Amino acid sequence: RRPCCASGRRDLGGRLSSPQQVSAMAVAAEEVDESVFLNASFPIDGDMLNLTNASYLASAGFSGYEFPSDSIGIVVFVVLCLMVLSLCAAHCYSPTPQMTLIVALANLVLTIPISNIFGVAGSLNHNDLVAREIVGWYQLVCLLVALYYTYVVVSQAMTPQRPKLVTVPYVEAGSKEYPHEFVGCGVCGDVLSKSWFVSCKTCTDAKAGGFNAFELCHKCVMIHDRAHTLLLWEDDYCKGMVDWEATARQNQAPENEPLIGGHSG
């Protein structure tokens, strides 16, 4: 019969260990297990990570590539935050579609490390789960905004911009519709829409180029002879005669405008 001892346990060599030694061995084993867990190389079993939460991993110094808690990861995350804040401030001063698209994409980039933090740990932790769902919905909103403004920006780039023309009333045109069914630029030959175009009365009267009517597109109207009588048409009706002096003042660059501007009549 093998003797037993209530105050200790035998090691692999059959020697008796004291309770203090047993306790020390247990602590050492826990430290080894924790160090192996925290310093393990990827891939790591997802179940191991899900048994903890994001705050514990951050405080324990876990620095996997999906968890930016080391010094470099923190610096990159702070820089991303500053970039997004700067772009948001710029968007407040210049809320253009291009700027909105940039802000939406910047927010998507910023949420990547945040979603990784709560995605790599804590599916069993309620707080991490709620945070992950909030970040996920926020990413979806940013993605939809980015998709919409991508369409807007691409459409603007593909569509010629209409020049801002200032007109004065032209009595001779009255309320008559444009007399020609088809319109096209007499300079470059582009087919035009009746929703917006400019006709040159001077060239039309002179039968310039052999045309019965001389119309101009968005680009050619800006380089046409400004001594001619140009009429702006929208949806088949004349909006007036182009006033080049008023048009030049309206399109004047903001930095060239006087500090105290006059009022237009």
What is the molecular shape? elongated
Instruction: Indicate the proportion of strand residues.
Output: 5-15%
User: What is the helix content?
Assistant: 40-55%
SSE order, one letter for each helix or strand: EEHHHHHHEEHEEEH
How far apart are the first and last residues' alpha carbons, in Å? Answer: 116 Å
As laid out across the biggest beta sheet, the strand order is: 3-7-6-4-5
The largest pleated sheet is described as: 5 strands, antiparallel
Radius of gyration: 37 Å
Q: Quick check: average pLDDT?
A: 74
The structure class reads: alpha+beta
Low-confidence stretches: 1-9, 31-51, 254-265
Count of β-strands: 7
Number of helices: 8
Give a description of the structure:
The protein is α+β, with helices and mostly antiparallel strands and 265 residues long. The protein is built from 8 helices and 7 strands, in the order ββααααααββαβββα. A 5-stranded antiparallel beta sheet has the order 3-7-6-4-5. A two-stranded antiparallel sheet has the order 1-2. Helix 4 (71-93) packs antiparallel against helix 5 (97-119).
How are the elements arranged and paired?
Layout: E1 9-10, E2 16-17, H1 19-38, H2 46-50, H3 54-60, H4 71-93, H5 97-119, H6 126-158, E3 167-168, E4 197-200, H7 201-205, E5 215-216, E6 230-234, E7 237-242, H8 244-250
Antiparallel strand pairs: 1-2, 3-7, 4-5, 4-6, 6-7
Helix pairs in contact: 4-5, 5-6
